Structures are given as structure tokens and as C-alpha cells.
Amino acid sequence: MLSTVPSTPPLTETAVLAALAPEGGRPGGATDVSDTAVRIMLAAADAFAEHGFPATTTRDIASRAGLSPAGVYVHFASKEVLLFEISRRGHARARDLLVEAARDAASPTEALRAIVGGFSRWHAEHHQLGRIVQFEFRHLSPEHRAEVIELRKDIDGVVADVLRAGVESGELDVDDVPATALALLSMAIDVARWYVPGGRRTPEAIERTYGDLAVRLAHGRG
């Protein structure tokens, strides 16, 4: 006899992003999420951040998610597909945050401060996801890597557009926009590599410091 109990609908993409990168960051460890696919992604994120992609096994991910290895393959064809789904969402979330910050700023100078400061804070609050997004994507298949690279180009483009707008308005003085955008983003991304929760540098302090550094690097006059 078929069960009459309705199945739980899958989470929306917004809800998945909220689970992977909630406001203020997500502690590692036990994952209390009803959606099995999301629980697997969270378990994989913790494992990849702790051990790196090559050293993480499907069995390790399954154990963290409370499943058998076969249970993982019901939702994801391979460990690489799991990495792709996490990386794609992480990049898309970071891009959308930068777009929003740039759009809401009153001037190119404030936009630069907001996007670099906010991007730096994001890599502190989400240092585990940030390490995966920024440092593990090289393990993706060529097809998946190409899709992620396009998202990375979008992120570069947000910063470059703000710099160009600042140059045109006279607020910023930048000779090489692409190189400056790369330097600013690299500075923010590196936060995920060294940040330790509970340390002397808080995400809020990092946001202020890195936002101000970005403006000074671009010779902001505003």
C-alpha cells in the first residue's frame, strides 16, 4: 500500500543558500537540516574545508550527513559534482552580495569601500565555504570549472566597473583597472585562508580595515 504521507518538498534555491551561507556565518559540526541533499552539501563543505577535496572520501561525507555512501549517490553522481554545486552557489552568492552593495552605495568611493569590506567580511564569516569556493575549484572538471570561472569573471567585473566609475567621476585615480581589481579581490579572498573565529580580528573589524585599505589603494579622494 502506498504511503499517503506527503513528501517534504525540496528547499528553494534561496533556502539552500541560506543554509550554506547564513547571515553571520555557520559553525561546523552537526547539521540539523531536513533536506537530505542540503545536509550532504553541508557535510561535504565541512569535510572539504577540513581535509581538502582530494583527501575527502565519499564515506567521510556520508558519515557526517548520517547516511550510507550509497545514500550520497542518490543525490549526487560524484564527489566532484558535490564540489561543483557548493562552489557554484558560493560564487553566485558572493557575486550577488557585491552587486547589491555596489548598487546601494551613494558614490563610487563608498561602493568600493562597501564591496571590498563586505567581501572581506564574507570570507571571514564564511571562511570554510570561502576556502572551498576560492581554493578547491581547481579540482572541478573542465566543464564545471568553466562555469565557475564565468562567475569569477562576473565578480571581477563588479569591482572593475566601480573603479572605472570612480575614475570617470574623479574620485579615484587608477591607472590599471584590471590589475587593481585583482589586487583588491585577492586581498579580500585571502581572509578565508588565515581567519580564525574568536581571534583578535573580528569580521566587523576586517570589514572596516579592508574597506578603508581599498579606498587608499585606489587613491580615493572622497
Keywords:
single chain; 222 residues; mainly alpha; Tetracycline Repressor, domain 2; disordered N terminus; DNA-binding; Tet_transcr_reg_TetR-rel_C_sf; HTH_TetR; TetR family transcriptional regulator; KstR2_TetR_C
Q: Considering DSSP H and I runs of 4 or more, what fraction of the residues is helical? A: 55-70%
Please state the overall shape, judged from the principal axes of the Cα atoms. elongated
Strand count, sense and barrel status of the largest sheet are: none
Q: Report the mean per-residue pLDDT as an integer.
A: 87
Radius of gyration: 19 Å
Organism: Phycicoccus sonneratiae
DNA-binding region: 57-76
Keywords: DNA-binding
Domain HTH tetR-type: 34-94
How would you characterize this protein structure?
- There is one protein chain.
- The protein has helices at residues 13-20, 36-51, 58-65, 69-75, 79-104, 108-125, 127-135, 142-169, 177-189, 191-194, 203-217.
- Helix 3 packs across helix 4.
- Mean pLDDT is 87; it is low at 1-7.
- The chain has a single domain (13-219), classed as Tetracycline Repressor, domain 2, CATH 1.10.357.10.
- By secondary structure, the protein is mainly α.
